[in-house]
Amino acid sequence: MELGTERIKSLFMLDSNITCLNHGSFGACPKEVFSSLVKWQETLEKNPVKHLAFDVFKYLEKSREALSLYVKCYKDDLAFFPNPSTALNTVLRSLDLQKGDEILTTDHEYGAMDRAWRFLCKKTGSIYINQSISLPLNSREQFLNEFKKGITKKTKVIFLSHITSPTALIFPVKEICDIARERNIITIIDGAHAPAQLDLDILDINPDFYCGACHKWMCSPKGVAFLYVKREFQAQIEPLVISWGYESDNPSHSQFLDYLQWQGTYDMSAYLAIPDTIDFLKKNNWDVVTQECHKLNIWAKDKILSEMGMDPLCSDLFLGQMSSFYFKDPMNDQSQIDFFDKYQTQVLFTLWNNRSLFRISIQAYNNKQDIYRLIEALKDYQKQARV
Ligand SMILES: Cc1ncc(COP(=O)(O)O)c(C=O)c1O
């Protein structure tokens, strides 16, 4: 399977003038999957009352079923959300945190989630601890030793990215969930980047809560994320929006689903496109595509490091389809826009622990030419910055 061929590129809707090496931020939707979204929107508009008042729940069940088989859990243990922030905020706001309780995480987490936790800690008097995981990260033992130093008698929750956003590291979440379970600590895994980048098996990881995005690496239409909640925690979940599912006139077998599946009127077509999204991935041998993308990512990482004279952030063992790099020049919003406009090449520029980083993402539509183009752009940018 050769990545980035005209055939594969033509499956997607991306502007062919742009070198997109930032699939990780917002994904990219194939034409066929986008057509499924439009098909569902047409179904809705042909008969809004029948669709939204009755049929949508039956269709949602089909979508949950397809997704649960894909990420390996039971269909009634997951609910759809428009994005990981909404899903994870639902969990955070449902926890019974007391003054002095500790939430242990790392210093590699997604900024929006750090903010959500700090907000909650201000309200509850609990303490958010960003345990330092030092770079370069060379072994699982290094991760486990450094992370475990943060566990105390007061640790109530462990919150961990499955794949980190700024540094693009795959964390050993299964081992951490095992350690947490022995100590009666709640585990919340932020797997925004995991579905379709990793062969996800939620039951095997065995977290208490797991959130994933479908519009990133699964390439679904925008606005699809999911939350898995272990049965014993479902009764404590409170929806962010109280609606008809609370004190339902017509309760289903699951309060968890009743509370979460109706959040007022909105278009759930993107959720309903999930079975077609998964069909697309299967039909196009996405397990092979993922392996090839991983290989290209490792090649690209080595090439960028040697061409740019940079130090690695980690050993290959922690990498999937993304890699991050130290970058000498801090990028503000305007310099990012200027970079994209000038070179028509997109990567994620970010700031992590006061260091400037950039992150590449490799998807089916990328090839080695994209990496050569990026290296040329980065070199030219740095040369101009020094003039
Ligand atoms: C690790 C991680 N968690 C959570 C999110 C939240 O995504 P959103 O802002 O779409 O809710 C992202 C988004 O990129 C992410 O990378």
List the domain count as a whole number. 2
Strand content: 5-15%
Cross-sheet strand order for the largest sheet:
2-8-7-6-5-3-4
CATH superfamily of the largest domain: Type I PLP-dependent aspartate aminotransferase-like (Major domain)
Apparent shape: globular
The CATH C-level class name of the largest domain: Alpha Beta
**N- to C-terminal separation?**
43 Å
The tally of beta strands, per DSSP, is: 12
Order of helices and strands: HEHHHEHEHEHEHEHEEHHHHHEHEEEH
The helix content, as a percent range, equals: 40-55%
Bound ligand species: pyridoxal-5'-phosphate
Radius of gyration (CA) equals 21 Å
Number of helices: 16
Q: Pairing-aware structural class of the strands and helices?
A: alpha/beta
CATH architecture of the largest domain: 3-Layer(aba) Sandwich
Mean pLDDT equals 97
How is the main sheet built? 7 strands, mixed
Give the SSE layout.
Layout: H1 6-9, E1 19-20, H2 23-26, H3 31-46, H4 48-71, E2 78-81, H5 84-94, E3 102-106, H6 111-124, E4 127-131, H7 140-148, E5 155-161, H8 173-182, E6 186-191, H9 202-205, E7 209-213, E8 225-229, H10 231-234, H11 255-261, H12 269-272, H13 274-283, H14 286-308, E9 322-326, H15 333-343, E10 345-346, E11 348-352, E12 355-361, H16 368-386
Parallel strand pairs: 1-10, 3-4, 3-5, 5-6, 6-7
Antiparallel strand pairs: 2-8, 7-8, 9-12, 11-12
The structure holds pyridoxal-5'-phosphate.
Question: In a few lines, what is going on in this structure?
Answer:
With 387 residues, the protein is of the alpha/beta class. It is built from 16 helices and 12 strands.
